[in-house]
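Before the break, one more example. Copy the sequence into your notebook; we will annotate it together after we see the structure.
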Amino acid sequence: MSIRTDATPGGAPDEAPEDTTAPASAARTSWLREHSELGVGVLLFHLGVLVLTDALTMTVDLTQRGPVGPRTVPFVVGTGLLVVAVLLALDVLRGGRGEAEAGEDVDLSEPADRRTVLLLAGVFLGFAVLIGPVGFPVAGALLFWGAAYALGSRHLHRDPLIAAVLSLLTYVVFDHLLGVPLPGGPLMGVL
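Here is what the structure looks like once it is written out:
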C-alpha cells in the first residue's frame, strides 16, 4: 500500500489554486478602458454636486433677494451639470462612444515639446507677477509677444508692435467700454 503525499485530507490531489483574479482584473481593466468616458461623467457629477452645495449653503441677505437672486445661476448650472453627467453615463453604458477627431494631426510617437510648454508657463507667470506693478498694457504686451515667441514666431520687429496694439486695444475695450477695471500701471494717466 502506497501513501500519496500529494493528497489533501479529503483525498483529492494537491493542485495549485487557479488564479482567478488575473482574468477578472484583465476583464475589469478592459471594461474600464472601453467605458473611459464614464470618468468625464463622474467629474461632471462631482462638479454639479459641488456647485449645488455652494449655491444652497450661500448666505443671502434679504436685500439681495428678488426674482433672480445670487443663487439662481449657480443652481441652474449645478442642475445642468448633474443632468449632463447622468445623460452621458447612460449614453456610455448603452454603447455610445466619442469619436476621435478626424483632423487630428498629433504624432503620438514624438516626445512632448517641453521647451515650448516651459516658455509658455514662464510667460504666464511673468504676466501674473508684472500686471500689478507695470499694469495691464505693458504686462499684456509682454504676454502676447512672449506667447508668440514661445509658439515659434521669430519676427522680432513686427511681433512686439502687434503685441502692444493688442494689449492696448484689450485694455481700452475692457476698461473703458465694458467697465471691467484693469490695472493701468504707469499708463493710467495717459490712457
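The CA atoms of residues 145 and 163 lie 5 Å apart. Residues 72-93 form the longest helix (22 residues). Try to locate both features in your own notes.
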